[in-house]
Amino acid sequence: MRKLIKGDEVVVIAGKDKGKRGKITAVIFNEKKGDKFLVSGINMIKKHQKPNPQLGVQGGIVEQEAPIAVSNIAIFNPETSKGDRVGFEVKDGNKVRVFKSTKKVIGE
After folding, report:
1. Rounded to an integer, what distance in angstroms lies between the CA atom of residue 26 and that of residue 82?
2. What is the pTM of this model?
């Protein structure tokens, strides 16, 4: 079980977008370099895209989200309105994710 999953609301704790919030849209797994996440509206870059008439893609400068490292984001705790760490507990025989500060189950 992973600490952060697709659909979690996270806050950026380091980098150019520090303090911004967004939802995780994709997870990129990498054993050697560590996990990275695509977060909606965070870490936007400009990409120069070539036109591809066969696919109907128009060329130009496109803005898109770049992956952000797991160490630069934290899950957002709505109770404290801050970023928080994730822990695990066993409740009713099931392993669940909990906020470290409040011990409340994530997603309830």
Report:
1. 22
2. 0.85
